[in-house]
């Protein structure tokens, strides 16, 4: 009888809400530790699972997550753009940037896609009293993170956004999609050989995955001497101090690492999932501990 009572107490509902992170590769992705710490701090009955999903498995994986009743989750490379076709509804930001990193299951069972990358990036600047309005911003890359950041910069009315990518057509497609939304000027620059950051740029964003888990890797750019200050940002979060940021510091730039963006985009996602605002320092502390191991 005691064994039955213990089992009955253990199995009483409700079941915890399940959330996912899908991508390939996902080994070393620290989001699970950050999100579960936030759930604990909010006393929210949620669990977060990290799942490797290849490009070929994306469609069946999404249907499987629906069938299992997952309440939402995160999408990382290489699925941020291809996942759109499997969702039922998209936010304005996701529609503009054509990339999703956050999915929420609505009450009717539909999956709603949003993108918190760009919003998290802007928050990481605002927290340091750095503004983008009317400034010239150079973005290196044209993938999911670059698209989200460019969209948020346009909505924030940056003066000019210069898209730099070795595949120039991808940059032109993104520039065309975002043109006319605000007074922001969209332009495209060719990336052939070593790219020299323009002397009149005020912010440069390294928005590729180069350097992720690879401390010795760096995009092929140079920081020519300049008269005005330059803010150099990297979306890569591990290592926190990337080679790109170290070279920027040596050139006299103010630097912003990818850790703040990672925490802020995570907080925004958790707010959508739970309706509660998690405490940032606890989430950041878990990441810093994980990266120090």
| Strand order in the largest sheet | 2-1-3-5-6-4
**Pattern of helices and strands:** HEHEHEEHEEHEHEHEEEEEHEHH
Radius of gyration: 20 Å
Q: Output the structural class.
A: alpha/beta
Count of the domains: 2
Main sheet overview = 6 strands, mixed
Characteristic key phrases:
293 residues; alpha/beta; Rossmann fold; 10 helices; 14 strands; 20% strand; globular
What topology does this entry show?
Layout: H1 2-11, E1 17-23, H2 31-42, E2 46-52, H3 58-67, E3 72-75, E4 89-90, H4 92-97, E5 102-105, E6 111-114, H5 117-126, E7 136-140, H6 144-155, E8 160-165, H7 168-178, E9 185-190, E10 195-196, E11 203-206, E12 221-222, E13 231-234, H8 243-250, E14 254-256, H9 258-274, H10 280-292
Parallel strand pairs: 1-2, 1-3, 4-6, 7-8, 7-11, 8-9, 10-12, 11-13, 13-14
Antiparallel strand pairs: 3-5, 5-6
Structure notes:
This protein is an alpha/beta fold and 293 residues long. The chain has 2 domains: 2-115 and 263-292, Leucine Dehydrogenase, chain A, domain 1 (Rossmann fold, 3-Layer(aba) Sandwich); 118-256, NAD(P)-binding Rossmann-like Domain (Rossmann fold). The protein has 10 helices and 14 strands. The chain has helices spanning 2-11, 31-42, 58-67, 92-97, 117-126, 144-155, 168-178, 243-250, 258-274, 280-292, and strands at residues 17-23, 46-52, 72-75, 89-90, 102-105, 111-114, 136-140, 160-165, 185-190, 195-196, 203-206, 221-222, 231-234, 254-256. α2 crosses α9 and α5 (117-126) packs across α6.
